[in-house]
Amino acid sequence: MNNRFNLGWGSSVAIRKAFIEASLDCYITFDSEDILKMDYTDHTGDPYLIELTREIIERQTGIKYNHIVLTHGATGGLVVALTALRNVCSAETNVCTTPAPFFRMYPDIIKNAGFNHLQTNDFTDLNPSIILLDSPSNPLGKIHIGNIPGKHTIIFDSVYHTKSYMSKFYEPPAHDINVGSYSKMIGINGIRVGWVATQDGLIYERLKEAAAAHYCGLSHPQATILRGLISNVHWDNFELYAQRKLDANREEWSKLEKYFGGTAVYPVGMFFY
Q1: What is the C-alpha separation between 57 and 69, in angstroms, rounded?
Q2: What phi and psi, each to the nearest 5 degrees, are found at residue 127?
Q3: Three-class SS of residue 105?
Q4: What tens-digit pLDDT sequence spans the chain (273 residues)?
Q5: Are 187 and 19 in contact (CB under 8 A)?
Q6: Three-class DSSP category at 162
Q7: Which of 96, 174, 176, 208 is the least buried, fewest Cβ under 10 Å from its Cβ?
Q8: Which of 216, 96, 233 is closest to 154 using CA atoms?
Q9: CA distance linking residue 26 with residue 49, whole number of Å
Q10: Contact present, 117 and 143 (Cβ < 8 Å)
Q11: 178: nearest Cα among 93, 87, 56, 261
Protein backbone atom coordinates (compact mmCIF):
# COMPACT_ATOMS: atom_id res chain seq x y z
CA MET A 1 0.00 0.00 0.00
CA ASN A 2 1.63 3.21 -1.19
CA ASN A 3 -0.68 5.74 0.48
CA ARG A 4 0.24 7.19 3.84
CA PHE A 5 -2.54 7.83 6.31
CA ASN A 6 -2.32 10.07 9.35
CA LEU A 7 -4.28 8.10 11.93
CA GLY A 8 -3.89 10.66 14.69
CA TRP A 9 -4.38 13.97 12.90
CA GLY A 10 -5.67 16.71 15.18
CA SER A 11 -6.57 14.29 17.95
CA SER A 12 -5.22 14.48 21.49
CA VAL A 13 -7.82 12.24 23.11
CA ALA A 14 -5.29 10.15 25.04
CA ILE A 15 -3.61 13.27 26.43
CA ARG A 16 -6.96 14.80 27.34
CA LYS A 17 -8.05 11.68 29.22
CA ALA A 18 -4.77 11.57 31.11
CA PHE A 19 -5.13 15.23 32.05
CA ILE A 20 -8.67 14.67 33.34
CA GLU A 21 -7.51 11.70 35.43
CA ALA A 22 -4.85 13.88 37.04
CA SER A 23 -7.28 16.77 37.60
CA LEU A 24 -10.30 15.09 39.20
CA ASP A 25 -10.11 17.40 42.24
CA CYS A 26 -9.82 20.54 40.15
CA TYR A 27 -13.01 22.63 39.98
CA ILE A 28 -13.51 25.70 37.83
CA THR A 29 -16.15 28.14 39.07
CA PHE A 30 -17.37 31.48 37.78
CA ASP A 31 -19.10 34.29 39.66
CA SER A 32 -20.58 37.64 38.70
CA GLU A 33 -17.15 39.26 38.66
CA ASP A 34 -16.04 36.77 36.02
CA ILE A 35 -19.07 37.58 33.88
CA LEU A 36 -18.19 41.26 34.08
CA LYS A 37 -14.73 40.38 32.79
CA MET A 38 -15.87 38.92 29.48
CA ASP A 39 -13.33 41.05 27.70
CA TYR A 40 -9.71 40.69 26.57
CA THR A 41 -6.51 40.33 28.50
CA ASP A 42 -3.48 42.47 27.71
CA HIS A 43 -1.99 41.72 24.29
CA THR A 44 0.83 39.79 25.93
CA GLY A 45 -1.59 37.70 28.01
CA ASP A 46 -2.79 37.34 31.60
CA PRO A 47 0.19 38.11 33.93
CA TYR A 48 -0.45 35.23 36.33
CA LEU A 49 -0.93 32.79 33.46
CA ILE A 50 2.35 33.99 31.98
CA GLU A 51 4.15 33.13 35.22
CA LEU A 52 2.53 29.68 35.31
CA THR A 53 3.53 29.21 31.67
CA ARG A 54 7.14 30.16 32.44
CA GLU A 55 7.30 27.41 35.09
CA ILE A 56 5.64 24.83 32.85
CA ILE A 57 7.93 25.52 29.88
CA GLU A 58 10.94 25.18 32.18
CA ARG A 59 9.56 21.84 33.34
CA GLN A 60 9.38 20.58 29.75
CA THR A 61 12.56 22.09 28.27
CA GLY A 62 14.82 22.91 31.22
CA ILE A 63 14.89 26.57 30.07
CA LYS A 64 13.48 29.50 32.06
CA TYR A 65 12.60 32.18 29.52
CA ASN A 66 12.88 35.87 30.33
CA HIS A 67 10.01 36.92 28.09
CA ILE A 68 6.70 35.25 27.13
CA VAL A 69 3.75 36.37 25.03
CA LEU A 70 0.59 34.25 25.10
CA THR A 71 -0.98 33.62 21.69
CA HIS A 72 -3.97 31.98 20.03
CA GLY A 73 -2.47 28.50 19.96
CA ALA A 74 0.89 27.51 18.52
CA THR A 75 -0.34 28.48 15.05
CA GLY A 76 -0.92 32.01 16.31
CA GLY A 77 2.50 31.86 17.94
CA LEU A 78 4.16 31.00 14.63
CA VAL A 79 2.36 33.86 12.90
CA VAL A 80 3.47 36.29 15.61
CA ALA A 81 7.07 35.02 15.56
CA LEU A 82 7.39 35.18 11.77
CA THR A 83 5.76 38.61 11.61
CA ALA A 84 8.16 39.93 14.26
CA LEU A 85 11.17 38.61 12.35
CA ARG A 86 9.88 39.68 8.94
CA ASN A 87 9.97 43.30 10.04
CA VAL A 88 13.76 43.21 10.38
CA CYS A 89 14.67 41.00 7.40
CA SER A 90 16.27 42.33 4.25
CA ALA A 91 15.27 41.09 0.81
CA GLU A 92 18.36 38.88 0.75
CA THR A 93 17.35 37.08 3.96
CA ASN A 94 13.62 36.93 3.24
CA VAL A 95 13.69 33.13 3.48
CA CYS A 96 12.24 30.75 6.04
CA THR A 97 13.83 27.32 5.89
CA THR A 98 12.30 24.10 7.17
CA PRO A 99 14.00 20.72 7.27
CA ALA A 100 11.83 17.78 6.25
CA PRO A 101 9.64 16.35 7.60
CA PHE A 102 7.60 19.33 8.76
CA PHE A 103 4.06 20.27 9.79
CA ARG A 104 1.90 20.45 6.67
CA MET A 105 0.62 23.98 7.42
CA TYR A 106 4.14 25.48 7.47
CA PRO A 107 4.34 26.47 3.78
CA ASP A 108 1.09 28.47 3.91
CA ILE A 109 1.96 30.10 7.26
CA ILE A 110 5.41 31.05 5.94
CA LYS A 111 4.03 32.43 2.68
CA ASN A 112 1.33 34.47 4.42
CA ALA A 113 3.97 35.97 6.73
CA GLY A 114 5.81 37.33 3.68
CA PHE A 115 8.68 34.81 3.49
CA ASN A 116 9.88 32.55 0.73
CA HIS A 117 9.82 28.91 1.83
CA LEU A 118 12.91 26.76 1.39
CA GLN A 119 13.03 23.08 2.29
CA THR A 120 16.42 21.51 2.93
CA ASN A 121 18.14 19.18 5.36
CA ASP A 122 21.61 20.44 4.47
CA PHE A 123 22.52 23.63 6.31
CA THR A 124 26.22 23.57 5.40
CA ASP A 125 26.22 26.42 2.85
CA LEU A 126 22.86 27.95 3.70
CA ASN A 127 22.71 31.74 3.58
CA PRO A 128 21.50 33.42 6.79
CA SER A 129 17.77 32.84 7.11
CA ILE A 130 14.92 32.12 9.49
CA ILE A 131 14.86 28.40 10.32
CA LEU A 132 11.71 26.79 11.64
CA LEU A 133 12.26 23.52 13.51
CA ASP A 134 9.57 21.32 14.98
CA SER A 135 11.17 18.85 17.35
CA PRO A 136 9.82 16.23 17.77
CA SER A 137 8.59 16.85 14.25
CA ASN A 138 4.95 16.71 13.29
CA PRO A 139 4.07 14.13 12.19
CA LEU A 140 7.12 11.82 11.99
CA GLY A 141 8.61 12.41 15.44
CA LYS A 142 12.13 13.35 14.30
CA ILE A 143 14.33 14.88 17.01
CA HIS A 144 16.66 17.76 16.11
CA ILE A 145 19.73 17.72 18.33
CA GLY A 146 22.62 20.19 18.52
CA ASN A 147 23.31 23.55 16.91
CA ILE A 148 22.73 24.45 13.27
CA PRO A 149 25.88 26.07 11.86
CA GLY A 150 25.64 29.61 10.55
CA LYS A 151 24.12 32.94 11.58
CA HIS A 152 20.48 31.94 11.47
CA THR A 153 17.49 32.92 13.57
CA ILE A 154 15.86 29.75 14.90
CA ILE A 155 12.19 29.28 15.78
CA PHE A 156 11.73 26.10 17.85
CA ASP A 157 8.22 24.65 17.49
CA SER A 158 8.02 22.70 20.75
CA VAL A 159 4.40 21.49 20.73
CA TYR A 160 5.49 17.86 21.11
CA HIS A 161 8.59 18.58 23.22
CA THR A 162 6.83 17.62 26.45
CA LYS A 163 7.24 14.83 28.98
CA SER A 164 3.97 13.33 27.79
CA TYR A 165 5.03 12.84 24.19
CA MET A 166 8.66 11.88 24.95
CA SER A 167 9.64 8.93 27.12
CA LYS A 168 13.00 10.57 27.93
CA PHE A 169 14.39 14.10 27.98
CA TYR A 170 15.97 15.48 24.82
CA GLU A 171 17.98 18.69 24.90
CA PRO A 172 16.09 21.36 22.92
CA PRO A 173 17.81 22.54 19.73
CA ALA A 174 19.54 25.90 19.97
CA HIS A 175 16.94 28.58 19.20
CA ASP A 176 15.95 32.23 19.50
CA ILE A 177 12.19 31.79 19.88
CA ASN A 178 10.20 28.95 21.45
CA VAL A 179 6.64 28.36 20.22
CA GLY A 180 4.37 26.04 22.21
CA SER A 181 0.77 24.99 22.77
CA TYR A 182 -1.44 24.12 25.71
CA SER A 183 -3.80 22.44 23.25
CA LYS A 184 -1.24 19.74 22.56
CA MET A 185 0.28 19.69 26.05
CA ILE A 186 -2.94 18.99 27.95
CA GLY A 187 -5.10 17.70 25.09
CA ILE A 188 -7.77 20.39 25.40
CA ASN A 189 -7.58 21.59 21.80
CA GLY A 190 -10.42 24.12 22.01
CA ILE A 191 -8.72 26.23 24.68
CA ARG A 192 -6.62 27.77 21.87
CA VAL A 193 -3.78 29.10 24.00
CA GLY A 194 -0.14 28.94 23.01
CA TRP A 195 2.95 31.05 23.51
CA VAL A 196 6.09 32.57 22.07
CA ALA A 197 9.05 32.75 24.45
CA THR A 198 12.51 34.26 24.11
CA GLN A 199 15.53 35.38 26.11
CA ASP A 200 16.15 38.34 23.80
CA GLY A 201 14.67 41.68 24.92
CA LEU A 202 14.68 43.20 21.43
CA ILE A 203 12.92 40.18 19.91
CA TYR A 204 10.39 40.37 22.77
CA GLU A 205 9.50 43.96 21.87
CA ARG A 206 8.93 42.90 18.27
CA LEU A 207 6.83 39.93 19.39
CA LYS A 208 4.62 42.25 21.44
CA GLU A 209 4.15 44.57 18.46
CA ALA A 210 3.28 41.64 16.20
CA ALA A 211 0.79 40.25 18.72
CA ALA A 212 -0.92 43.63 19.06
CA ALA A 213 -1.15 43.90 15.28
CA HIS A 214 -2.73 40.47 14.80
CA TYR A 215 -5.40 40.17 17.50
CA CYS A 216 -7.07 41.83 20.47
CA GLY A 217 -5.57 39.45 23.01
CA LEU A 218 -6.87 36.33 24.74
CA SER A 219 -10.29 36.42 26.37
CA HIS A 220 -10.54 36.50 30.16
CA PRO A 221 -12.69 33.31 30.16
CA GLN A 222 -9.90 31.49 28.30
CA ALA A 223 -7.33 32.70 30.81
CA THR A 224 -9.54 31.93 33.83
CA ILE A 225 -10.31 28.37 32.72
CA LEU A 226 -6.69 27.62 31.86
CA ARG A 227 -5.36 29.11 35.11
CA GLY A 228 -7.75 26.92 37.09
CA LEU A 229 -6.81 23.81 35.13
CA ILE A 230 -3.03 24.03 35.19
CA SER A 231 -2.50 25.56 38.63
CA ASN A 232 -3.92 22.51 40.45
CA VAL A 233 -2.97 19.55 38.28
CA HIS A 234 -0.45 17.03 39.64
CA TRP A 235 2.03 17.23 36.77
CA ASP A 236 4.01 14.09 37.62
CA ASN A 237 0.84 12.00 37.62
CA PHE A 238 -0.50 13.60 34.45
CA GLU A 239 2.69 13.08 32.47
CA LEU A 240 2.96 9.48 33.65
CA TYR A 241 -0.68 8.74 32.73
CA ALA A 242 -0.24 10.43 29.36
CA GLN A 243 2.95 8.49 28.52
CA ARG A 244 1.21 5.21 29.34
CA LYS A 245 -1.85 6.02 27.24
CA LEU A 246 0.22 7.14 24.28
CA ASP A 247 2.47 4.10 24.50
CA ALA A 248 -0.60 1.85 24.63
CA ASN A 249 -1.94 3.55 21.51
CA ARG A 250 1.41 3.15 19.76
CA GLU A 251 1.39 -0.56 20.59
CA GLU A 252 -2.06 -0.94 19.04
CA TRP A 253 -1.14 1.05 15.93
CA SER A 254 2.05 -1.01 15.53
CA LYS A 255 -0.14 -4.02 14.75
CA LEU A 256 -1.04 -2.30 11.47
CA GLU A 257 2.54 -1.81 10.28
CA LYS A 258 2.33 -4.67 7.78
CA TYR A 259 -0.51 -2.90 6.00
CA PHE A 260 1.54 0.27 5.54
CA GLY A 261 4.75 -1.02 4.02
CA GLY A 262 6.30 -1.87 7.38
CA THR A 263 6.39 1.79 8.46
CA ALA A 264 7.17 1.83 12.19
CA VAL A 265 5.26 3.77 14.79
CA TYR A 266 7.62 6.40 16.18
CA PRO A 267 8.32 6.39 19.94
CA VAL A 268 7.90 10.18 20.32
CA GLY A 269 5.38 12.77 19.18
CA MET A 270 2.07 12.02 17.46
CA PHE A 271 1.34 8.77 15.61
CA PHE A 272 1.65 8.68 11.82
CA TYR A 273 1.29 6.24 8.96
Answers
A1: 13
A2: -65, 155
A3: coil
A4: 344 444 444 457 788 888 888 876 666 666 666 666 677 778 788 899 999 999 999 999 999 999 999 999 999 999 999 999 986 665 556 889 998 888 889 999 999 998 999 999 888 888 888 999 999 988 778 888 878 888 889 999 999 999 999 888 889 999 999 999 998 899 888 888 999 999 999 999 999 999 998 887 788 888 888 888 888 888 999 999 999 988 888 888 888 888 877 777 888 887 665
A5: yes
A6: coil
A7: 174
A8: 96
A9: 17
A10: no
A11: 56
- Residue/partner pairs of 49-58 with CB below 8 Å, 24 or more apart: 49/223, 49/226, 49/227, 52/227, 52/230, 52/231, 53/195, 53/197, 54/197, 56/185, 56/230, 56/235, 57/158, 57/178, 57/180, 57/195, 57/197
* CA neighbor of 34 nearest in space, from 52, 20, 46: 46
